Amino acid sequence: MTHPLYDVIERRRDVRAEFSDEPLDPEVLDRLLRAAHAAPSVGNSQPWDFVLVRDAATRTAFQEHVARERAVFAASLPPDRRARFERIKVEGILESALGIVVTYDPERGGPAVLGRHAIADAGLYSACLAIQNLWLAATAEDIGVGWVSFYRKEFLADLLGIPAPVEPIAWLCVGPVSHLQETPDLVRHGWRDRRPLADAVHQDRWQG
Q1: Which of 147, 38, 42 is CA-nearest to residue 101?
Q2: Exposure b/e, 1-37, CB count within 10 A at least 16 = b
Q3: Which residue of 66, 87, 135, 206 is surrounded by the most CB atoms within 10 Å?
Q4: pTM metric for this prediction
């Protein structure tokens, strides 16, 4: 019998257009944050923090910034690719119940972080594990998550008053949804298909 976790992994989607206008239950939010905070981290440094953004003016300012960055990216595309991109919604900042900004503190657990001496980015990887924990927990709770990446880190840090050297690494749109798409948006819109697993697996050495 397949473990239910595999179903959650298969159902997980990057949500943009499916957010409902329902509020997010505080107890559910607490469970999501606890799942994120339970992630493994290099040297047990726990380099993440979570900024919960509900303020309408802040969300509007961020959405306008994202729209500008979207336009910059669109302008860099050839006409046929640009036309396809214009059909893809890239964020649900205003539609979702709230934004959760995940940050990474490179100094947390320092100055000597056990396990990070040879791989400086191991702490950043740890923060990404917290995001994945939150995302899978949300899917199990039938809550949508959308990762917004069309922004400049400096803009978001200034908008939320995030002190250096802490970095914002993800704005997550989080909230109840009407449904989750059967097919990921970028596949559905013909932007890019999934690679077959066989193309990603190498035995003993890298094979072209």
Answers
A1: 147
A2: eeeeeeebeeebbbbbebbeeeebeeebbebbbebbe
A3: 135
A4: 0.94
Instruction: Name the least confident of 26-40, 73-87, 93-107, 147-161.
Output: 73-87
Cα separation, 160 vs 103, whole angstroms? 11
Mean pLDDT of 190-204: 91
The structure tokens listed for 147 are 């990762």
Nearest in space to 143 (alpha carbons), one of 107, 85, 92, 86: 92
Q: What is the pLDDT of residue 205?
A: 94
For each of the domains in the chain, give its residue range(s) and CATH number, in order of start: 13-183 (3.40.109.10)
pLDDT tens digits, one per residue of 142-163: 999 999 999 999 999 999 999 9
In sequence order, the 6+-apart residues with CB closer than 8 A to the CB of 6 are none
Which tokens sit at 103? Answer: 């940050």
Amino acid identity, position 72? V
Tokens 């890239």: give the residue.
Answer: 90
Helix segments in the chain, DSSP class H: 4-11, 26-37, 56-75, 79-86, 122-140, 153-160, 185-188, 197-200
For the chain, the distance separating the N- and C-terminal CA atoms, rounded to the nearest angstrom, is 35
Give 10's strand partners: none
Res. 182 pLDDT band, cuts 50 70 90: confident
